[in-house]
Amino acid sequence: MHHDTDTQDIQDTIAAIATPPGQGGVGIVRLSGPDAKRIGLAMFRATSPAFRDFTPRMLHHGAILDAQGSPIDEALAVLMPGPRSYTGEDVLELHCHGSSAVLREVLDATLALGARLAERGEFTRRAFLNGRLDLSQAEAVAELIAAPDRAAAHLARTRLAGLLGERVRALRTRLEHLRAALCVAVDFPEDEVDCLAPEDFLSGVRAVMAEVRGLLTSHERTRAFREGAVVVLAGPVNAGKSSLLNALLGRERAIVSDTPGTTRDWLEESISLDGLPVRLVDTAGLRETADAVELEGVRRSRELLERADLVLLVLDGGQPADPAALALAHEVGPQRLLLVMNKIDLAPELPDEPGEGIALPRPHPPGGDAPLDPRSSGADRPECVEGRPVLAAENMKMRGDRGELFPPAAGGILPLPALPVSARTGAGIEALTATLRRRLAEAAGGEPQAGELAPNVRQAQAMRQALDELEALALDIEAAVPYDLLSVRLETACMRLGEITGEIAPQDVLNAVFDTFCIGK
Ligand SMILES: Nc1nc2c(c(=O)[nH]1)N(C=O)[C@@H](CNc1ccc(C(=O)N[C@@H](CCC(=O)O)C(=O)O)cc1)CN2
Ligand SMILES: Nc1nc2c(ncn2[C@@H]2O[C@H](COP(=O)(O)OP(=O)(O)OP(=O)(O)O)[C@@H](O)[C@H]2O)c(=O)[nH]1
Ligand SMILES: [Mg+2]
């Protein structure tokens, strides 16, 4: 690998607190660079009287001293001499008590001895510049640290192992071979032995394109697992959307009240559904309103609906499903819709067993544009218990054979089953999270596979650019464009692939990557 290195920069010895701020059992100050050992020897007083120098990669017990020679902390110190270290340079780690104040003092002592503060991602940048990691691995380090959940951590770990980089380098090599063959054909047109036939050229290019497409599919497929799936809680005012958000979150995050229109602006919280990160968004209830603020809230709700991976349409079990909810269900479509009927605690006696309750005509299958099932006049409806809303009792007896509810709507029932829940008592919440998890994984095209090579956004972008170039190239070959004009496209495609692993990485690409890191990484 060769990179534009700033030699001035790399002469510096950098230092940073490597552990997160706050109280911790242990906190680490890390140094990397030519002076790491000298600084370590100056500020560390080993407990063992026999100590003369750091034994490579061995922990030494002792005291950390400040610039005046007074002890700041009792600590463990380790020197990992380059090139067998994380950065490839001499690395010194001081494992201190995990107190922000102590760590700050220790860091100050390293600075007093000539170290300078590390920039974001500078340790990993040095590891990259010294060939310890390729760029796709360096990015995986940051992604692993930021992984919202274990599926995301797993995808990052696979990339950290370097497998994506290997695949991309292999693809680039194949393109380089094609390019070499092209050049031979151009330089020695009479030499028939080495001349690459257009069919072979084309099939070579197409094979690479197919592999790049496969990697891009994996990028799309794993998006929800890497970034979190967006689930939007929507529905009529007062249905209990905010209550449901709180119930799913396990704490009282959103304001709940019986005043319709309580939630005026959306709010987002993250939850984990068995390894799948979910961004849960509560929205303003949909209703006709003249209030300017609420109107804006409703407008934002609609915007959010478009970005949702799944819409949780929350219905109030104590109310008839209003036409707006019905319209919303149609608008969103069965693919992205999950209906829940809230407030089932209002129902006097919900049948225990699925299939019990009132027999209903089977609703039309989801997705069909068929009209809603008309309901009977209601002569056979059960009496309601005093004090409970009539509709609550009625709504909640409409069970399908799997325990689903088919909410009544004006002139019929909704063509989709609703999951019965109570945000108040927690009934049905577990079943809801299980269904959510399953639906989201299905929508994503299944769980990430073990060892799946999923490129990140930057890498996918570079792959798309490479693919565009190769597509144009394939058309050119088919159109019998002379070989000497094709080489440029191949070169561009190779460059785009090279940016993924960093063999070709202009300074601005590197800056963009390492600026996303935290200090101390
Ligand atoms: N204390 C501590 N824990 C840490 C790190 C660290 O820097 N310090 N890491 C930082 O991200 C991660 C581990 N990654 C590392 C990767 C390579 C080497 C390293 O020194 N490799 C050498 C030597 C291997 C050996 O001992 O034989 C090499 O590969 O040649 C160290 C850490 C997570 N845990
Ligand atoms: N009985 C019962 N009441 C509930 C349940 N969930 C919510 N409520 C009540 O319904 C009312 C509305 O709840 P919210 O969570 O504020 O409803 P919302 O859909 O967020 O309402 P807006 O933000 O106004 O659109 C409150 O009085 C809640 O206490 C439930 O499961 N059972
Ligand atoms: Mg609300």
Q: Which key features would you list for this structure?
A:
521 residues, alpha/beta, Gyrase A, domain 2, Four Helix Bundle (Hemerythrin (Met), subunit A), Rossmann fold, six-stranded mixed sheet, 17 helices, 16% strand, flat, disordered N terminus, binds the ligand Nc1nc2c(c(=O)[nH]1)N(C=O)[C@@H](CNc1ccc(C(=O)N[C@@H](CCC(=O)O)C(=O)O)cc1)CN2, binds guanosine-5'-triphosphate, binds magnesium ion, cytoplasm, EC 3.6.-.-, GTP binding
Description:
By secondary structure, the chain is α/β, with parallel strands linked by helices. It contains 17 helices and 15 strands. Helix content is 41%, strand content 16%. The strands form 3 sheets. The protein has a 7-stranded mixed β-sheet with strand order 3-4-5-6-2-1-7. A 6-stranded mixed β-sheet has the order 9-10-8-11-12-15, with helices on both faces. Strands 13-14 form a two-stranded antiparallel sheet. Strand 1 and strand 2 (24-32) form a beta hairpin. The radius of gyration is 31 Å and the shape is flat. It starts with 6 loop residues before the first helix and ends in a 7-residue tail after the last helix. Mean pLDDT is 83; it is low at 1-8 and 351-393. Residues 228-441 form the TrmE-type G domain. Belongs to the TRAFAC class TrmE-Era-EngA-EngB-Septin-like GTPase superfamily. TrmE GTPase family.
